[in-house]
Structure formats: C-alpha cells, structure tokens
C-alpha cells in the first residue's frame, strides 16, 4: 500500500521587526536556516509534492527533452579564435555534459580558422581542459576563470563544485601539461596576467559575498604570500580585474550601480602601485580601454546615453571628446584594436556595431537586414588585426559567427549553429516561422515594445496560447535570441513574446531610470500592459497566457501575480527575488548594500520603505484567485537565496489556499540552475511541459 504525498504545510513562526514605525511580520523566516534539518525536510517535501503534481507530465517531459536533444548537434566544435600562434576552441561530445577546451597551432599560410563541420577534433589539437574529467564525482560543476597567459604557456582556471560561485583557482603549465602546486581557494570571477606571466591577479569577496579585494599572486609561491593590490571599503562598490586587449595594462574596475573608478597597473610592472584614471564622482560612470598613447573613456558625465572621450596614457587628466552624446543612441562599450575602434551601441531597441577608423572619420555601422536581431563582438583577442569576429542571432536565426573585413566591409559567415531535423524529420527552415515587433500602451501613455515569434499560420483570433517573458532590471536588455527548446512550443502553436519593459536597457538609459528606485512599479505595469495588449490584438487570451521570468524577472512575476492575477493562466518564476523588502532591509545578507542604488535604501529612507512594501511580492500576497504558479530555485544560490521563493509559496498556500502552487528546489545547484547541458535541457523540458499543460497543449 502506498502513502499519498501530502500538500506541504509550513509551520508559522511569526517574527516581527519594526521599521519607520511599521511592523514587518515574517511567519516563515525560519526557512532561511539552511543548515537546519527541518528546512531541508520541508524543501524535500515540496519537491515530492511537485513531483506528484506533475507526474502525469513525465512522458511529455521525456518527449520535450528528446526534441531538444534530437535538434542539437551534440558532438560539435566552436569556430576557432586566433591568439598568437594558436587557434583556441571548445568541443562538445555526444553524451558528455561539459565542454572540452582545446587549441591547435597555426600552420604556415593559415589565415582562415580551421572548421570541423562534424565536431570532430582538429588534427594536432592540444586539450587544455576537459570539463567532464574535472566534474567527475560531483553533482555540480562550473568553470569560473579560463585565462591563458600572454605567452601561451600557462592556463589559469578555477572551479566551483557547489554552485555558490566561490572558486578554487589553479595554474596549469601548458608546456609540460602539469598542474603547478599553486592553489588559491575562495576566489571570484576575474583574472589578469602580467606581461611576463610571473604574476596573476584575482578577486575575492567579503562576508557579504561582495567582490572587494584584488590580489597579486606570484607564480610558484604559496597563496598565503599573496598581496592585496586594492581593497574596497565602501560597501556600495565591487571590484573586478582584467587585462587590456593590447596586453599593456591591468585594469582594476571599481563600480557601484551609479558610480565608477578605474585604476591601472602597467602589465610589465606588476608590482607597481595602481594609478587612478579619474577619481570617483557620485553619479559618474566610466570604463577604460587602452589604445596606443591614450586611454579611451566611455562615460556618462553630462551624457545620459554616454559619450566617448580619451585621455593621455602618460598623464591621465582631461577627457578629450571623440564621440559626442546623442540622446537615444546608447553607447555600451568600446573595443580598441591597433588600427581601428569598435563601438557597441543600441538605438531604437536594437543592438549595433560601429567601426571607427583612426583618421577621425564618422565610421560605418555594420548592417543586417532583419528587423529584429542581436549583434555583438565575439572573442577578438588579437590587438593587431584587420578582421572582426561577430556573433549574430534573432528569434528565428540560430547563433551565427561572422568575420568582418574592416578594409573591404565584407561580412563572411563562418558558421551558423546547426539545428537538426525535429520529430517530423524535416530540417529546420527559418521561413516556417515569423517574428515581428508590436507596441503596447502603458498606463502613463508610454509605448512599450514587444518582440514576438510564432509558427507561420498561427491564428490571430485570440485562440493561440502564448508565453510572455520579461525581466526589466539593472539596465539588462532582453535582446532577441534563438532557442532550440522554444521550437517545441512554437511547433505546438504557442506564440512566444518578450516584453521590453522599463527597468531594462532596450531604449537607453532613461528607459532604465524610469523602471528603478521610486519608479520601479513602471516595470510591473508595463508588463501587464503588454499582456493586455496581446489579448486585445488577438494574439492570445488571458486564459491562454503564461508569464515567465527569472531572478529580478522573478520579482516581476510575483508583482504581476498580485497586481493582475486575472491576466494570466500561469506564472513561471525562476530563482525569483520575491522577498525583496526583507532582503534589502538586511545589510548582512549577500549583495544587499550594493543593491541600495538599484532599489533604494528602505533602512534609511521611509519613503523607499513604504514604496517597496507596496509592491514586493511576499509582502503583498492576498486572498486572491491566483493563476497557477511554478517557482524554481537552487539551494546554493548566492544571488537570490532559496528561502525567498520557499517563503513566498508557503505564504501563497496559507493565504490563498485554493491556488495551485509548486516549488522545485535544485539541491545541488546555484543561481544558474543545473550545470550540465543535459541537466539544463531536462529542466527546460520540465518547465515547458508545465507551461503546455497550463495551456491545454500537453
């Protein structure tokens, strides 16, 4: 006789805190005790309940997983990138979860990258690192650093086996193939080599998991002898380190959400004192790239959408203009090469690349014909080159790698990611699908762009099911991207839409500013406006619309569930930031202080406190008729702690018990979910099966 899995019921232990004369009551604060067996038992009970509630979808999950696998060329090889006397690339092998990182010597007269269409190893390859071997015996594996020294002799790499993004840094001698004795635990992302590869710079975090120190390690010495090069005491700021493409300077990047500062060390003098390019000024952001006798400065000083200037390498001082500010054209980065510059920008909601000659001309924009697309620089490690490596995609065009000849302006397609035949045996044809942009009207009259993709012939009579995706924070743009897993939805008649809401960066810095701090609610009302527009325009109907978002996009999901539960048939919230008020009130938690310039500081400002309390999902759960909700989280997530969705689901179940709420916790993963590609495909199949079930397409 089997025992039926019960609905999990979390105990309620009211914890009270007083802020600005207001009492915050948190009945489920006990779930934050990660090491408490009772917490783990509760999460396991939720997982068991989710498995029971979705057991009828097991066949569909297998079908969707196999569709992803069938359409993917599992044994594959990236387009090699040249650096010095080697081509560098990554291979995947059918049946293996992780990539194999390799290089092969450049042969006499070889100018074009060697390409393996079947994914087979290149003749004469050297395996630098095999992720599958490193991952053996571990449920989770992530590679942090992968940094070959300028002379090609050493490889610095770091590994994480829990998902908490705390890496152990090691050095491999590529000449001998041996690992050096050097081992540095507790490191973060970011490394930089000195010019002669005698020194390696890296980053560590403080107790709040804020990257705050840059260290110098001398190869062949003990980690205990490493020296702190910069320690950042202001808790609003975090640090990073990198080597310029010219390999002349090590950059120490110091930034908060609103302010930045860059310090430089000559790469040929790694023990030198870091020099400040420009002292930090509140509200001024800038980044630095080295180019010959000058440092290029991309900045927002009196330039909302940023401008480009330069200053002297020998005596950094005044900023001399190169590209003036142009409202509506957001300059995002600048890349320097010996004979040209490349500016990455966005205008009218689309990304672009502008190549600037050194003669002071206006330069030229690289043109692509599709009305919706994403283009950006790929890996371009060579400083002296007349060719650029680009990456291009759209909602219907798979990831594509191009070379661009700077002199002739000719684009050469090197490789487009293959999409193998699906279940019907037909090859993928982009013309079987359509993409377009529409505009919703927000409550305040703002026009909000929506990108849509669907199978050709999908009806416009309101009968089609739809998934609406959103994010809307940190100036992050949800630019068009191709997804093999998404094809399984499109082929079942589902429309996929992306809401480019305020808080993101799609329409420039002002678009971001109008969706943060005390304007954050614009993010949520924009998303609801997009959902209403899709129904009004005949793309779908509220009972056939599922919303999806993750991380800060998970906050969006929780907020719109409270704001407009009638607009959706279901909501998928991945690693959702749904307990924002309690988190931002606690400066001891990871990353809280650095977030105050994004959300506001409710500890110090009663207006911010009241505003956040009025929208944060956990605080505003009410006895409403909520749509079905699937929350996904990971036990070792350090960015959005697992207890946020756990508490949210518990409060939903207690406050609106008639709803269908599921929580699935990955017990061996971090913010990005499962680490292996097959595990990631299974998670996507799980989510898509739940979505199709909600849309009556299971």
TrEMBL record:
Every Peptidase S9 prolyl oligopeptidase catalytic domain range: 481-695
Keywords: Hydrolase, Protease, Serine protease
GO terms of molecular function: serine-type endopeptidase activity
Domain spans labelled Peptidase S9A N-terminal: 8-416
Domain of life (superkingdom): Bacteria
Matches recorded under InterPro entries: AB_hydrolase_fold, Pept_S9A_N, Peptidase_S9_cat, Peptidase_S9A, Serine_Peptidase_S9A
Gene3D superfamilies documented for this protein: alpha/beta hydrolase, Prolyl oligopeptidase, N-terminal domain
Keyword Hydrolase among record annotations: yes
GO terms classed as biological process: proteolysis
Membership in a protein family: Belongs to the peptidase S9A family.
Designated name of the protein: S9 family peptidase
């Amino acid at each position: 006789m089997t025992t039926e899995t019960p609905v999990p019921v979390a105990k309620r232990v009211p914890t009270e805190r007083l802020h600005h004369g207001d009492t915050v009551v948190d009945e489920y604060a006990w779930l934050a005790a990660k090491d408490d067996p009772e917490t783990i038992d509760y999460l396991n009970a939720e997982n068991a309940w989710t498995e029971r509630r979705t057991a009828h979808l097991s066949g569909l999950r297998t079908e969707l997983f196999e569709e992803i696998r069938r359409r993917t060329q599992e044994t594959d090889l990236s387009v090699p990138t040249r650096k010095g006397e080697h081509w560098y690339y990554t291979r995947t092998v059918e049946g293996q979860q992780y990539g194999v990182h390799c290089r092969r010597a450049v042969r006499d007269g070889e100018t074009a990258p060697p390409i393996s269409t079947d994914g087979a190893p290149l003749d004469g390859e050297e395996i630098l690192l095999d992720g599958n071997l490193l991952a053996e015996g571990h449920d989770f594996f992530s590679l942090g650093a992968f940094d070959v020294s300028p002379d090609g002799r050493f490889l610095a790499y770091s590994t994480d086996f829990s998902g908490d993004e705390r890496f152990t840094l090691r050095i491999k001698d590529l000449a001998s193939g041996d690992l050096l004795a050097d081992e540095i635990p507790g490191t973060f992302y970011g490394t930089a080599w000195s010019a002669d590869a005698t020194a390696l710079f890296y980053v560590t975090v403080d107790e709040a998991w804020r990257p705050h120190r840059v260290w110098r390690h001398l190869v062949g010495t003990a980690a205990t002898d490493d020296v702190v090069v910069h320690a950042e005491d202001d808790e609003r700021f975090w640090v990073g380190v990198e080597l310029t493409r010219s390999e002349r300077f090590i950059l120490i990047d110091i930034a908060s959400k609103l302010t930045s500062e860059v310090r430089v060390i000559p790469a040929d003098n790694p023990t030198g004192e870091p020099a400040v390019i420009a002292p930090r000024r509140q509200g001024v952001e800038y980044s630095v790239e080295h180019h010959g006798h000058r440092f290029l400065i991309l900045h927002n000083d009196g330039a909302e959408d940023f401008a480009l200037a330069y200053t002297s390498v020998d005596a950094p001082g005044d900023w001399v203009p190169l590209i003036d500010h142009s409202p509506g054209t957001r300059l995002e980065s600048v890349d320097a090469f010996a004979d040209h510059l490349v500016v990455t920008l966005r205008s009218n909601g689309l990304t672009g690349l502008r190549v600037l000659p050194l003669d002071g001309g206006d330069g030229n924009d690289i043109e692509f014909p599709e009305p919706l697309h994403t283009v950006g620089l790929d890996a371009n490690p060579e400083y002296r080159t007349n060719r650029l490596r680009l990456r291009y995609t759209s909602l219907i065009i798979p990831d594509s790698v191009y070379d661009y000849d700077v002199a002739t302006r000719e684009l050469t397609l090197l490789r487009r990611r293959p999409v193998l035949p699906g279940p019907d045996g037909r090859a993928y044809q982009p013309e079987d699908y359509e993409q377009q942009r529409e505009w919703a009207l927000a409550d305040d009259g703002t026009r909000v762009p929506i990108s849509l993709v669907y199978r050709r012939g999908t009806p416009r009579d309101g009968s089609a099911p739809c998934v609406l995706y959103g994010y809307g924070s940190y100036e992050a743009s949800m630019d068009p991207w191709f997804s093999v897993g998404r094809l399984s939805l499109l082929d079942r008649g589902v429309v996929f839409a992306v809401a480019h809401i305020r808080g993101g960066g799609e329409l420039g810095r002002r678009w971001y500013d109008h969706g943060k701090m005390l304007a954050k609610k614009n993010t949520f009302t924009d998303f609801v406006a997009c959902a209403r527009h899709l129904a009004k325009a005949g793309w779908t109907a509220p009972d056939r619309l599922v919303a999806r978002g993750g991380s800060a996009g998970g906050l969006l999901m929780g907020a719109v569930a409270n704001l407009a539960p009638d607009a959706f048939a279901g909501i998928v919230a991945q690693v959702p930031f749904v307990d924002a008020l309690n988190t931002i009130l606690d400066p001891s938690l990871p990353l809280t202080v650095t977030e105050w310039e994004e959300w506001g500081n409710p500890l110090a400002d009663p207006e911010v406190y009241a505003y956040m309390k009025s929208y944060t999902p956990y605080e505003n759960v009410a006895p409403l008729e909520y749509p079905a909700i699937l929350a996904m989280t990971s036990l070792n997530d350090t960015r959005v702690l697992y207890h946020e969705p756990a508490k949210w689901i518990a409060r939903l179940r207690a406050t609106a018990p008639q709803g269908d709420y599921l929580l699935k916790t990955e017990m061996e993963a971090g913010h990005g979910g499962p680490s292996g590609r097959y595990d990631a495909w299974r998670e996507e199949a799980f989510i898509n099966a739940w979505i199709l079930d909600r849309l009556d397409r299971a």
